[in-house]
Amino acid sequence: MSATNRIHHIDVLKGIAIFLVVFGHTIRQTESLVFIYSFHMPLFFIISGLFFNEKKFQNFGDVIIKKARTLLLPYVTFYVLGYLYWFFVEKNVRPGLDLPFYNPLVAFLYGSDIGEFKSVNGILWFLPALFAAESILYLLLQLNKRILIIIGLIFSLVVAAVLSYIKTLHLPFCLGASFVAVFFMGVGYYGKGLLTLDLAIKKRIIYFIISMVLFVVTFKVAQYNPGINVKYAGLQNPLLFVVTSFTGSIATMLLAFAVFKMPLLEYFGRNTLYFIGFSEPIKRVVIYLSAKISPLSVEELRSSVPFSLGMVIVCFILMVPVIFIFNKYLFFAVGKRKKKIAV
């Protein structure tokens, strides 16, 4: 399979994954919400693991420097912009957000919400958590023996399960989520063979059928394990969480491979970073305006699958100019070294 083909179906996969994230943060219909949360973050971590290459780094210090540029710098940029939007606009129009100016700054330094201190953008936790996870994974891979690395990955999941049991212990920079991430990134790292699956049309039809079956399995099992919140290592039943993480992630991968090419999804898949930075505030504006112009309340809109899908589509449309501006003019603010316009 050529490198070009590989880009097509992996970008489609990333596009589907970011759609699930935005839809999951929009919908309030219980069964759909439980289904999405049962696997959407492990899917992102597996994708990260597929492309993790420890040989790109000279040493651990090099990992810290490079990952700080590509993950922590965007975290700072997005948070500063989100804070300014919150301070000058949102805190004045949304009930419950009229907090002291320093409140979100504490959450920023902590890497997530902590007690009464609220983040201006709940999705941004993913960036520092991924920074920590990739740093930990690099150290594990230095053990060189696969059996030791696998033990380390399992131990990381056990730590996450313990934190899930404690519930009230929310570590800074969402380190609980980082321990979850390390395990699934390791799965992706050792599952690189997925990148070379046969994409012949007959195989893609089979992938689609298997994908649909696995989605049904994921949906059914997920209903027995509601309340998952990877952000705080809230796994509920860790065994069921692992099951739905694998079935849902594999189903999404096979669906992406079956689709193979879809330019619009590929475009969004190449620009998932900006969705982490801006989809949440844009989504809030879309929901607010939708409730103003429709006879339905916010809760009624968010409890409806069709209305939620419509609002998500609007969010994706509004993301296009954001993506263009950052790729063309503000690439340096998210750690990119040169202008790169995704097409």
TrEMBL record:
Q: Which Pfam families match?
A: Acyl_transf_3 (PF01757)
Q: Which residues cross the membrane?
A: 12-28, 34-52, 72-89, 122-140, 147-166, 172-193, 205-224, 239-260, 272-291, 311-331
Q: Where is the Acyltransferase domain?
A: 9-319
The answer to whether UniProt assigns keyword Transmembrane helix to this entry is yes
Keyword terms: Membrane, Transmembrane, Transmembrane helix
Q: What is this protein called?
A: O-acetyltransferase
Q: Which organism is it from?
A: Neptunitalea lumnitzerae
